[in-house]
Write a structure and sequence with these properties.
heterodimer; A: mainly beta; six-stranded mixed β-sheet; 11 strands; 0% helix; 55% strand; globular; B: mainly beta; seven-stranded mixed β-sheet; four-stranded antiparallel β-sheet; 51% strand
């Protein structure tokens, strides 16, 4: 079993719809959870960053973390064609003040139809 | 803020040659830089962690003698793929974080094609 599972899609929705993206993970040591957006042949761009369980909202984006279920979600409201990209979930363990590399999901390819 | 650049953006080389990729943090001091590799339709995989002034820490399965990492300053890390082979063709991406940041900022990536 991979440490982080993410459905690669593609996920195609009409413009204006609410998009739900999610990841499951197996390692209970993960404490920090992130969502990145990646356009084709580009580096990932940080969208949301959360620590432990709970919700975080930023504009049209809401990130949810449920550590008891080892499940994280990203919701996009009022989706736009410009949101079409690959969305990567990423997570890392608590490193005691240092920096640790991230463990990524495969990414979900999202298509917003005009 | 938090801009990371990479150079070159793409490179084609012959099998057996060495390729150097640079990663720079443009507007912050990166105490730690990471190198990832992404094969088509696969997730980004961490290759190594590089702290300024220290030897890099490599992930299991990554050959340290093949992928040489140097982090000589707080704004620059380099990855050298030595004696590159076609199976090393991939998308190489660096990320950087400072001591006060918990998030990593990624460069735009370098696409390597070994013929």
């Amino acid at each position: 079993q991979k440490e982080v599972e993410q459905d690669p899609g593609p996920l195609s929705v009409p413009e204006g719809a609410i998009v739900s993206l999610n990841c499951t993970y197996s390692n209970s040591a993960f404490q920090y959870f992130m969502w990145y957006r990646q356009y084709s042949r580009k580096g990932p761009e940080l969208l949301m960053y959360t620590y432990s369980s709970g919700n975080k909202e930023d504009g049209r984006f809401t990130a949810q973390v449920d550590k008891s279920s080892k499940y994280i979600s990203l919701f996009i409201r009022d989706s736009q064609p410009s949101d079409s990209a690959t969305y990567l979930c990423a997570m890392r363990k608590y490193s005691g003040g240092g920096a640790d590399g991230l463990t990524f999901g495969k990414g979900t390819h999202l298509i917003i139809q005009p | 803020g938090a801009v990371v650049s990479q150079h070159p953006s793409w490179v084609i080389c012959k099998s057996g040659t060495s390729v150097k990729i640079e990663c720079r943090s443009l507007d912050f001091q990166a105490t730690t830089m990471f190198w990832y590799r992404q094969f088509p339709k696969q997730s980004l995989m961490l290759m190594a962690t590089s702290n300024e002034g220290s030897k890099a820490t490599y992930e299991q399965g990554v050959e340290k003698d093949k992928f040489l990492i140097n982090h000589a300053s707080l704004t620059l890390s380099t990855l050298t793929v030595t004696s590159a082979h076609p199976e090393d063709s991939s998308f190489y991406i660096c990320s950087a974080t400072s001591g006060s940041q918990e998030t990593q900022y990624f460069g735009p990536g370098t696409r390597l094609l070994v013929l």
